């Protein structure tokens, strides 16, 4: 059985400003870096066989922090990138969705992705990873909305597409999924208790 520790990256500048951040990028804030340092400390006793990451710099930065005390290379994959928002990239959430609802289908109308396509590329990548690491712990550093597309199939609370949906998957939270016999099962919903209580300034 493969056990996935799916990590949302730390807080970024666009997260702070409530702007859409799909395939575009913004840097981690000081708080986001501190969140990831604390999470890395909290996960120090988990033996990972591999660390995978989205190719987005905000995710790679977090993956590098997780890998810093481990003799593991980061395996960057485009298939682990966030949902693509097309022409809405970088827009303020409130301006892009004045009624407070995200698209229930996706963003193809804005030259972005539909949610099913995003979910399936994520699922296929994780299946490929499980084939390579069938009895291992694997860390995957990725993005809030992408994680949500998969969690919606396990829990109704993740199905609603509101502009605050990413709040359901906090920065540097860990979602545990298990994969065996061609089937995913939910271990834990997004959880921030993996972060230690160490001083944020460290």
TrEMBL record:
Substrate binds at residues 8-15, 58, 82-85. The active site is at 9 (tele-phosphohistidine intermediate), 82 (proton donor/acceptor). Pfam families: His_Phos_1. GO terms for cellular component: cytoplasm. GO terms for molecular function: phosphatase activity. It comes from the Bacteria. InterPro entries: His_Pase_superF_clade-1, His_PPase_superfam, PGM_Phosphatase. This is Histidine phosphatase family protein. It comes from Faecalibaculum rodentium.
């Amino acid at each position: 059985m493969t056990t996935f520790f799916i990590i949302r990256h730390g807080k970024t500048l666009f997260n702070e400003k409530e702007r859409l951040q799909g395939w575009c990028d913004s840097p981690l804030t000081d708080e986001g870096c501190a969140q990831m340092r604390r999470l890395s400390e909290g996960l120090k006793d988990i033996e990972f066989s591999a660390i995978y990451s989205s190719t987005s710099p905000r995710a790679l930065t977090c993956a590098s922090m997780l890998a810093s005390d481990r003799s593991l290379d980061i395996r960057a994959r485009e298939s682990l990138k966030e949902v693509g928002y097309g022409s809405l990239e970088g827009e303020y959430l409130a301006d892009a969705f004045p009624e407070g609802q995200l698209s229930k289908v996706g963003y193809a109308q804005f030259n972005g992705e539909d949610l099913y396509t995003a979910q399936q590329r994520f699922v296929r990548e994780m299946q490929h990873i499980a084939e390579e690491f069938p009895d291992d712990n694997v860390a995957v550093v990725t993005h809030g909305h992408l994680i949500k597309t998969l969690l919606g199939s396990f829990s109704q609370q993740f199905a609603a597409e509101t502009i605050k949906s990413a709040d359901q998957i906090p920065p540097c939270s860990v979602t545990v999924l298990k994969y065996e016999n061609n089937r995913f099962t939910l271990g834990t919903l997004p959880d921030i208790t993996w972060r230690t209580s160490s001083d944020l300034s460290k």
